[in-house]
Amino acid sequence: MNAFDLSRLRPRLPSPLEPVEDERFARRGLTLLLKREDLIHPDLPGNKWRKLALNLEAAEGRPVLTFGGAYSNHLRAVAAAGRLLGFATVGIVRGDELAGRPLNPSLTRCAADGMRLEFVDRATYRAKNDPATRALLLERAPAGAYVVPEGGSNALAVQGCVELGRELAGAADAVGVAVGTGGTLAGLAAGLGPGQRALGFPVLKGGFLGEEVRALQEAAFGGPRGEWTLDERFHGGGYARVSPALEAFARDFEARHGLAIERLYVAKMLYGLTALAEEGVFPAGTRLAAVITGAPDAPPSDGARPSGASPGGRARPSGASPGDRARPSSASPGDGGQPADSSR
Ligand SMILES: Cc1ncc(COP(=O)(O)O)c(C=O)c1O
């Protein structure tokens, strides 16, 4: 274990696997289990832990440079890891107009954890993977910085998610997971055993995520691994869109099972899995595991709602927004947006 081994932070691993009683599943002879990745660590919940663990080991204490939108949970997780393990962090934040404004709560937390925030215009942000632009951005970080991509999904992140699949060995026949950049699904599927399969629920529209998952598996393992499929029907209009039906579903699920549901990813996956169960897609006797990849932020001070999602529209990123990034539905998941910004 090196000094930058996240296991120093005493994660709750393997994450708990909890059976829940849900009549929509039970009446079709299905078992529903919740894989509580949200309980792994308070500052690095769910797939944040899985994706960062091997990357931070590889960084070996060098400064870490990463990217995100103004509401990025990934930025927050990297900043928290830097504080907890004692390495420097730099966050390249999309939107140079933010530079002169008070920080939102999410970026305030990043800064409080010691992250240096560098705001860049959208064109530069979009070009961040071009070698020339990347070199310029690296100049904003201390020499020798280790780069973690937007959303944290790279080959090491995918390898880190393999353990999630392994923890489910023998316990479930099909495993539902939300898909944003594809890294979690790519690793999960690789870790599952024979006869098990992963069902990915993209939270973005566009139908491009299958290609992303294949590319990530190629980068991580040199080729395809495991059984996985995507069901593209449950993005609900696009990234950070929370329809009244989805909001009602999530509230009902919270009431039934006493569990706060993150809206932008987890709610869409649970909605999709429940719909598939009700469509009769799974034979009786199937054991379904739903991966709870994250938790909502703390409730707003009025305590009125369990998440920052606004029914009927985009999630509300101010205050206690639950998801990574609020932004236009056509956007890609790593590069969050401004609440009022529907242009790119
Ligand atoms: C809570 C939550 N669930 C699921 C995902 C999707 O993971 P991935 O981007 O690896 O597909 C994310 C994004 O990081 C997330 O924040």
Automatic annotation (TrEMBL):
GO BP annotations listed: alpha-amino acid metabolic process
Highest taxon of the lineage: Bacteria
InterPro entries xrefs: ACCD_DCysDesulf, TrpB-like_PALP, TrpB-like_PALP_sf
Cofactor(s) this protein cannot do without: pyridoxal 5'-phosphate
UniProt entry keywords in alphabetical sequence: Pyridoxal phosphate
Location of region: Disordered: 293-344
Domain Tryptophan synthase beta chain-like PALP: 23-294
N6-(pyridoxal phosphate)lysine modified-residue sites: K48
Residues the record marks as active site: S72 (nucleophile)
GO MF annotations, alphabetized: D-cysteine desulfhydrase activity
Any Pfam family matching the protein: PALP
Family of this protein: Belongs to the ACC deaminase/D-cysteine desulfhydrase family.
The protein, known as: Putative 1-aminocyclopropane-1-carboxylate deaminase
Species assigned in the record: Streptomyces venezuelae (strain ATCC 10712 / CBS 650.69 / DSM 40230 / JCM 4526 / NBRC 13096 / PD 04745)
